[in-house]
Specification:
The chain is an alpha/beta fold. It contains eight helices and nine strands. The strands form two sheets. The protein has a seven-stranded parallel β-sheet with strand order 3-2-1-4-5-6-9, sandwiched between helices. A two-stranded parallel ribbon has the order 7-8. β5, α5 and β6 form a beta-alpha-beta unit. It has a single domain, classed as Rossmann fold (3-Layer(aba) Sandwich).
Length: about 240
């Protein structure tokens, strides 16, 4: 099986690459800085140095890797706001949207050129539970993940007749370099290895959407169904230490 992972040089993407390699699959990854790849993996996978916001370079990488077929593309690359803050740094917000939304779309577009031709394949996007509600101090991140989740739901319907599966993964907090930037509590924090194993299992089961851990699933679904006035009252009374830009 051939698996391509964006943002596969660190965090959950790297752990997924490691686990797929261990099971004997052919793995390709891309990332902004290939020096982050562990030395022992560099000769075992095919790597491409690029940003997922560079549509042309990403398309060339996926086309090259999938020249002899492509089974799974995992659009994992993403940016977070890290330190929660008000929408003061708009350039940072635009960068989050570009990476998290367009990065997924670019990857899927390139993959679909191959998958529609071979009439098979599996598209996977790493979204987040943050996309189910608007979180204070994380407007661009919440919006980007909401967009990814809805986008996946739509194209899962569009490409069903082409025998192409779509899975949207919505994790809570996973211990990665991305979450280490956070300056707020991270309940139910999970290791990258456990998170990757759960994601792989969801992909193998061809789940349309997988939200984990169950505690975060329950919490976010509860917050989502609350009347918005109630949600606003609860969340606006939470203390947030916004940093100055």
């Amino acid at each position: 099986m051939k698996v391509f992972i964006t943002g596969g040089t660190t965090g959950i993407g790297l752990e997924l690459a490691r686990q797929y390699l261990a099971d004997g699959h052919v793995v390709g990854v891309c990332g902004r800085d290939l020096t982050k790849l562990p030395q022992e993996l560099k000769d075992k996978l095919k790597s491409y140095q690029l940003s997922v916001t560079d549509k042309k370079s990403l398309d060339e990488a996926i086309s090259d890797f999938g020249r002899d077929g492509l089974d799974i593309v995992i659009a994992n690359a993403g940016r977070s706001v890290g330190v929660k803050e008000k929408m003061a740094d708009w350039s940072k917000a635009y960068d989050v949207m570009d990476t998290n939304v367009y990065g997924v779309m670019y990857a899927f577009e390139s993959a679909l050129k191959i998958m529609t031709s071979q009439k098979s394949g599996h598209l996977v996007a790493i979204s987040s539970v943050a996309g189910f509600v608007g979180l204070a101090g994380a407007a661009s991140y919440s919006a980007s993940k909401a967009a990814v989740t809805t986008f996946c739901e739509s194209i899962s319907l569009d490409y069903k007749s082409d025998n192409i599966n779509v899975t949207c993964i919505c994790p809570g907090f996973i211990d990665t370099p991305l979450t280490k930037q956070n300056n707020h509590p991270m309940p139910f924090l999970m290791s990258a290895s456990k998170g990757a194993a759960l994601i792989r299992a969801a992909i193998e089961r061809k789940k349309l959407r997988y939200i984990f851990p169950w505690q975060m699933n329950f919490l976010m679904m509860f917050l989502r169904i609350l009347p918005r006035k109630v949600y606003y009252f609860i969340m606006s009374n939470q203390t947030l230490n916004f940093t100055k830009s």
